[in-house]
Amino acid sequence: MQSSNQLQDLLRSVNRKSYPAYKSLKGIYQFDRYQLSIDHVQGDPFASPSHISVRISHKDAGFPADYYKDQLTRTTLADFLTRQFEQQVNRYTFRAKGSGKSGLISVTHCGQEVLPRTACEISDQGVTARFFVGFPANGRTINSGELEKIFFEFLPVCMQKAFLYRNLNKKELEQAIFLAEDQAFIRKELEKRSLVAFVNDGAVLPRESGISSRPMKDCVAFVSPESLRISMELPHKGTITGMGIPKGITLIVGGGYHGKSTLLGALELGVYNHIAGDGREYVITDATAQKLRSEDGRFVKDVDISLFINDLPNKKDTHCFSTEDASGSTSQAAGIVEGMEAGSLVFLLDEDTSATNFMVRDAFMQQIIRREKEPITPFLERAGDLYEKSGISTILVAGSSGAFFHIADTIIQMDNYLPVDITASTKALCRDYPLSSSHAPAFQIPSSHRIMTKTAPAPGRRTNYYGRPQTQTQPERLKVKTHGRDGFSLGKQEIDLRYIEQLIDSEQTAALGLLLKYAIEHLIDGKKTVREIVEFLAGKLQKEGLAFLSEGYISCGYAMPRIQEIYSCFNRYRRP
C-alpha cells in the first residue's frame, strides 16, 4: 500500500503523457481516514470510466454497532450511505474538465426499494464504497491536474459528508434502521398469522406515472375493510393497522380503473423493503411471492407441465416438455411449474396478462369442446389443489369471468381505490350461479430433475498473415452486456427478461448476467440439475455476496436478485 503523497507524485509524473500511462496508477493508497483503491483504469477518455473503491474502518466511520449487527441492518445502512454519497458526488461530477468522459464521477442511483448492492457494502472491518471516475484528458493526452482535483479536493469532501456518522442526519438514519426492523417484524408476523400479505391503512399505492415509481400526490389513501383489518405492535412504530390477506385463494375484482392492478402491483413489490416516504413502506408480501404471466415465444426446457397440459395432438410428452417458441398457455403452465421449483408459496396473477384458455373454460365451451378433446386443464380447476396439496396460495386479479368467485376463499372488490370485502355476499350469489361439474385429472406434484446444459461455444476466430480466418483451439471468452432492466446478452445469445415483473433494477439484471456466466464457465457439466446449480449459487451469494463472481475485484453496478429471478433467468437461457 502506498501513501496519498505517492499518488500525487505519480499523477504529476504522468501528466501530459499518452493516456495508457494512467495504468501505472492502479493500486491502493492510504488517505487520512480511508483507503482509496484504483481497481481498473479505462483505456481512453471515451471508454467506460475507471473503477474506484474506498474503504473506511468502523472506528473512523463511527456508526453505532447496532447499525451493522446483522444482514438486515447492514443492507439498510449501505443503502442509506449510497443515497448520501450520490447526493454529494452529483455536486462534483464533470467539474474536472477534459474530453469524453473526463471528470465524470458516478455512483449507483437507488430507487424506491432497498437492495443489497456492490455500490456500498458493510463488513466486519468497515464500509466499502465503489464508484466510477472518468480520468481526465485533453484528446488522448493525460491531464492529471484535473484528476488530482477529483482525488484530493472533491472526493475527501464527499467522503466526510457521506460516510462519517458525525456529519450525517442521525435521526434520519435511525428512522431508516427502525423502519427496516419493523418491516422484518411484519414479515415474521405474516407466517405466524397465516397471512400472505399486509397492506397498512394510509398506504399510498398509486404511482406518479407509468414511468415513475414515486408516490402519486393527492390520491386516495388505502383503508382496509373492517372484516380483514388486523393490528400489529411493531418494535419501533408501535401499533399499526391494515388489511391482512390470508393464505388460500384471494380474488381481486372491480370496475376498470378502480385500482385492481394497482393493488396487485404493490403486492408484487412487497417482496422488497421500501424507503420512508414511498407510501408502500408497510406493504409487505411473502418473500417468495412470484408474479406470473403468459409469455408467447419464450424458451421452455424439460418442464413437467402435465399438471395443466396433456394429450397434445402431436403426441409431444408434456411430462418433459421443451419448445423454442411456447404459446401463451404452455408458457404460463411452465412458469407456474418453474415457480413451484423455485420455492414460491404465493402466485400473483392478472387476468389481463394471462392466457385466457389457460385460466378458465366456461360451461358453454365445455359443452361444445368435450374434455377428451381439450388438452388444457385450466388454472381454475388447479388453484384449489395447489393450495390444499402444495401450500401455494394465489392472489388473482379478474374482471371478466365470474367462475373464479366459486373457488376464492377471499374476495376483495376495489371501489375507487378502496377495498371492500364482498366474500360473504358473493358466496351467497354463487349458489344461484353454480359451476358446471368438472372432472379434472388427479393432482400430481410435477417432477423436477432438469439437467442443465449449455450451448456449445463458438471457436475463436483470428486471421493469418494474409488476412484469411484461422480457427483457434480456445473458445471465445463469454462477455456480458446488460440492456437495462429488460435483459442482457451473453456471448451471442440474448436473454430476454422483459416479463420478469419483479426484476426492478438494471443492476439486478447485470448480476444475473454474471451468475449465468459463472454457471456456464464453472458449474454446468451435463450432470447437475437446474435446482442444484441455482441452490449452490444462492448459498454462495448468502455467504459471500456478489464478490465471488468477480475476477480480482467487484465493481459498482450490481444488485442482489432473489432466487426466484435467478431461476427465471436460467430457465430462459436457450440451450440444447
Summary tags:
576 residues, alpha+beta, 22% strand
Question: What is shown here, in short?
Answer:
This protein is of the alpha+beta class and 576 residues long.
What do you see in this structure?
The chain is an alpha+beta fold and 576 residues long. Helix content is 29%, strand content 22%. It has 14 helices and 30 strands. The strands form nine sheets. Strands 1, 2, 3, 4, 5, 7 and 8 form a seven-stranded mixed beta sheet that branches. It has a six-stranded mixed beta sheet with strand order 19-22-23-16-24-25, with helices on both faces. Strands 14-15-11-18 form a four-stranded antiparallel beta sheet, sandwiched between helices. The longest helix has 23 residues, at 170-192.
